[in-house]
Design goal:
single chain, about 180 residues, Hypothetical Protein Pfu-838710-001
């Protein structure tokens, strides 16, 4: 098991110019960590107990494998979202879903995004294309500085997570699918 416990420090911004940001990152001497790839996220909960506490249990699968992540309640340091995070690599995600199901946890939500990651200093810059728009995320110590260098005003950071963003989208577009997934 490869468990990582950290404190996540994150800024997220809606953007209509991911291509422009992608062009700017090499000029800032950022290192591209990989091409864009599909990320499938399943949120697990038991009788909404985690949601009620502001916590998330997420099973993420991408081209690099699968990860189970627990995120504690969010708090804000200025505009930066800060939360406890525990993460471990998962060898067999379907077996894990069955084990957690035996404990009463079930997949309650799904969301997808196409993510491309870069590294600038100690900050991970994620370019996310989602079914409801494009976003840039800055994660790590110094996220505010890197976000400003990339042309974002920290006061306009998005405080909602993707699930909350999609809930608001569903209120405005009730004809949308219940989960934030790309059309097949």
């Amino acid at each position: 098991m490869n468990e990582q416990a950290t404190v996540e420090r994150e800024l997220k911004f809606a953007t209509d110019d991911l291509a422009g940001l992608r062009e700017r990152l090499p000029e800032l001497e950022a290192e591209r960590l990989g091409e864009s790839g599909l990320e499938e996220n399943r949120i697990l909960d038991r009788s909404n107990e985690l949601e009620e506490r502001g916590c998330i249990l997420r099973l993420r699968t991408d081209r690099q494998g699968a990860w189970l992540t627990y995120k504690g309640p969010a708090r804000f340091d200025g505009e930066v979202k800060v939360r406890e995070e525990h993460q471990t690599r998962v060898e067999d995600p379907e077996a894990l879903v069955r084990v957690l199901g035996s404990l009463g946890y079930e997949v309650v939500r799904r969301y997808q995004k196409k993510r491309e990651e870069w590294r600038l200093g100690g900050v991970t810059v994620a370019l996310d294309h989602t079914p409801i728009g494009d976003f840039a995320e800055f994660e790590g110590e110094g996220a505010e500085t890197v976000a400003r260098r990339c042309g974002f005003e920290t006061g306009s950071a998005e405080r909602r997570n993707y699930l909350q963003l999609y809930d608001d989208h569903l209120r405005e577009h009730p004809e949308s699918p219940p989960d934030m997934v790309f059309p097949v």
